[in-house]
Design goal:
Chains A, B, C, D: It holds the Pfam family HbpS-like. Chains A, B, C, D: Residues 1-20 form the signal peptide. Chains A, B, C, D: Keywords: Signal. The structure is a homotetramer. By secondary structure, chain A is α+β, with helices and mostly antiparallel strands. Chain A has a single domain, classed as Haem-degrading domain (Beta-Lactamase, 2-Layer Sandwich), CATH 3.30.450. Chain A has helices at residues 2-14, 28-45, 73-86, 91-96, 141-154; strands spanning 50-55, 60-65, 120-124, 130-137. Chain A has a four-stranded antiparallel β-sheet. In chain A, a hairpin with a 5-residue loop joins β3 (120-124) and β4 (130-137). In chain A, α2 (28-45) crosses α5 (141-154). The longest helix of chain A is centred in the first third of the chain and has 18 residues, at 28-45. Chain A is globular, with a radius of gyration of 17 Å. The N and C termini of chain A lie far apart (43 Å). Chain B binds chain D through residues 1-2, 4-5, 8, 12, 15-18, 20, 22-25, 55-59, 88-89, 93, 96-97, 102-103, 124, 127-130, and chain D through 1-2, 4-5, 8, 12, 15-18, 20, 22-25, 55-59, 88-89, 93, 96-97, 102-103, 124, 127-130. β2 (60-65) of chain B pairs antiparallel with β2 (60-65) of chain C.
Chain lengths: 158, 158, 158, 158
């Protein structure tokens, strides 16, 4: 069984390009930078948050939960990041359109559950291309959004 | 095969500390006390309810359903307790912020479904540390909340 | 709103039979007896378990988790009890038929996930009628089953 | 509305102990140490993996995905970590008991899906108490397990 897996892996490595990172996808280094920048910002603001980073494919790339932050914010932070990338939008802006009577009322029910209040933002590279997204949960919506903005911008320093 | 499991279990017991209960986690004795206090309170008030207790990790610790109480309240009671621990809050207070136009509108769609009307409360120990949560469902929201308050406070008598 | 609910409740009470417990359904008193008997038996055997009781409708009736027992056993204990009532069978006996090549291979995939190894048993009243089920998880399969047997029989003492 | 949340948060902070981290729960600092140790080990071994850390309550604490590692390994790594904590066990050891004919065949169907091959391990502190778990996915099962071992032990250096 292991031989099968091994030969599979060898052939994959030999094929070279297969593992190539999408050119416009956030890297592990960038994701860690965003994560730690958000953590630093949250500590400066004295807020306890959960921090989630997704890649260009809206898949989880990095995550950290500060001690004693809300357990319920694990899922909220991840859903904020996914929502921001699903629709390339500030989650708070999306929420303005999902209220009763809004043009996309209850879109929260799609994609396994969206979060449409502030704290989720697309992450853009120096060329203004969206390469992923960040979601923050645990503080007030204003605090969450401020941390997300600072963290998303931090990769421009790399 | 059974010998394997047996030796595994023996080795776990010999390792001593492995099974240690978290210092700030509700105990079985406390959970039973909360459960029976809620039951007594509900009987005094002549209300039929479901009673759920979760631990500090928001995992189910104890549960009882009174005869002829709503079947649909099984899940509501459990979700109320989980919600109260997820965000360390009275579920009714959370609900004030999740209404249309509210700052965290539709957060109910996270964490596999939240319940954000009264009846869920964090459980605190004598040092005011949250060690779990309780959720009551089956009566009016005022009744559910009154039962939750009485039950959560009952562990201070232990 | 509360008046509506109140009048609803009053009308339900006046209708009498509506809240009547199924004649062959486990009562809250019986469920608590089963729960505490299982707990006592587990303590005598020095095993840490999760204990779940379902009613005749396979709905959760009572639950308790002993301190430091497996977190993963919450769901396993509940699924054992549900499985035992779904098919009115000792879960271990069901497992003999679900192995590869067995007549009901992989039935575990139904009903949101079954558990088909020992520890789940129907609960019968004095007239030999099934009124619910019990599920035990946390010890060896032999220990879990022994606790389930002792607990299921305890209601005959009431 | 924001004032409500603000006053709520202020009152929570004033209550002091409320945000206390459980004494036997992995800290953010420890989780980051485990994450980065796993990353370093994987780079040394030239393997691309997903790394997940859960806390004592089996809730996600930290996560990182190396560039070009399998997308499918996000969920596998998280489930390995959860499984290791759910049953306080090396996931590979659990898998020996879940095979056809095994004593706990098909337990994988519980808890929303378990992963029972190597790569998940409990994380213990210096006193041998389990404080969380790690899950690695992306390499061979031997590689995943070797990375998990190295990372779990790294917190003893703190």
């Amino acid at each position: 069984m292991n031989k099968l897996l091994l030969s599979l892996i060898v052939s994959i490595f030999l094929s070279g390009e297969l593992y190539a990172q999408n050119a416009y996808d956030i890297t592990e280094e960038e994701a860690l930078k965003v994560l730690l920048s958000a953590k630093t910002k949250a500590e400066e603001m004295d807020v306890l948050v959960n921090i989630a980073v997704t890649d260009a494919g809206a898949n989880l790339k990095a995550f950290i939960r500060m001690d004693a932050s809300y357990l319920g914010s694990i899922d909220v932070a991840i859903k904020k990041a996914k929502t921001a990338r699903y629709f390339n939008i500030d989650t708070g802006k999306l929420g303005e359109m999902t209220q009763p009577g809004g043009i996309i009322y209850n879109i929260e029910l799609s994609n396994g559950g969206l979060i449409t209040f502030p704290g989720g933002l697309p992450i853009k590279n120096k060329d203004n291309v969206i390469i992923g997204a960040i979601g923050i949960s645990g503080g007030t919506i204003e605090q969450d959004r401020a941390i997300a903005i600072a963290a998303a911008q931090s990769i421009l320093e790399l």
